[in-house]
Amino acid sequence: RKQATEYSTSSSDEEFEPKPSLTHKAKRALRKRRKLEKETKQLIKQEELKRLHKAQAVQRQLEELEERQRALEIFGVELERELRGEADAGTKDENQMLHEWFELVMEKNKLMRYESELLIIAQELELEDHQSRLEQKLREKMAIDDSLKDEMDLNEEDEI
């Protein structure tokens, strides 16, 4: 009986008050933090995927550009032979061949500029990816309480 009465009196009115307990507040804050971390990770993944798709497109364009440059090179070699008289020029006169050769050189220069632009875009994507990884690493380091960090951790955080 004594134990039964102690048990029944041990539940106080405070348990039924609408005040949230400290642990409830902590749990809510933890849930909110986890939700923000999850959303941040999703955004980072989306950005990574965008960069990946863009990098793949740049790589495809570079491959197509390389094929086009090879074709122009082959045509240019043929045209130079014709200009030197080493190959049969057929009905083409020298002015027409020179005109074609200059157009070929202009096209080749245009392709080289485009290739330079694509390489710059690829380098930019690599730098963005590197920056994203550094930001993620810094977030992870900063999430750790400063009291738990040693000198090496603090130096690494500063370096990042």
TrEMBL record:
Biased composition (Basic residues): 22-34
Compositionally biased spans, kind Polar residues: 1-11
UniProt domain BMERB: residue ranges: 45-160
SMART domains the UniProt entry points to: DUF3585
Gene transcribed to yield this protein: Micalcl
PANTHER family, A to Z: [F-ACTIN]-MONOOXYGENASE MICAL2 (PTHR23167:SF39), CALPONIN HOMOLOGY DOMAIN-CONTAINING PROTEIN DDB_G0272472-RELATED (PTHR23167)
Protein name (database record): MICLK protein
Residues covered by region (Disordered): 1-34
